[in-house]
Amino acid sequence: MDGDGETPVYGIEDLAERAGVSRRTVRYYVQRGLLPTPTGVGRGKHYTEAHLTRLVRVRELQEAGVSLADIGARLDGATPEATEVAPWAPAQTTWTRVVLGEDLELMLRGRRLDESQVESIRAALRQILGR
Hints:
By secondary structure, the chain is an alpha+beta fold. The chain has 2 domains: about 10-85, Orthogonal Bundle (Multidrug-efflux Transporter Regulator, Chain: A, Domain 2); about 95-130, no CATH class. It has 5 helices and 4 strands, in the order βααβααββα. It has helices at about 10-20, 25-30, 50-65, 70-75, 115-130, and strands at about 10, 45-50, 95-100, 105-110. β3 and β4 form a beta hairpin. The chain starts with 8 loop residues before the first strand and ends with a helix.
């Protein structure tokens, strides 16, 4: 979290883990211009929720078979219909499985939750389900 305690910010390790890529991949995407440079300087560099959202989108498009050059063009101003993969195209995505309880799982595409987020979801579901 940043100084106001409300806006999430991530170091490169946390960003990479949440998006399901390596730190090296994050650096490569920044170098290629697919991901904006981090905010801050030196050891204070950090990434925002917008970085995470874009990183997940880049990975999804790449997994759908879109080249990095085309991904850059699509994300940086191509027509809206060009940013979507054709509905008939095979799509592979990365999912994270979070076991919340007996017979209860949460599937997340393209991101991971920290333990406090998972516990908040568990608590809310216990209340909703009366467990």
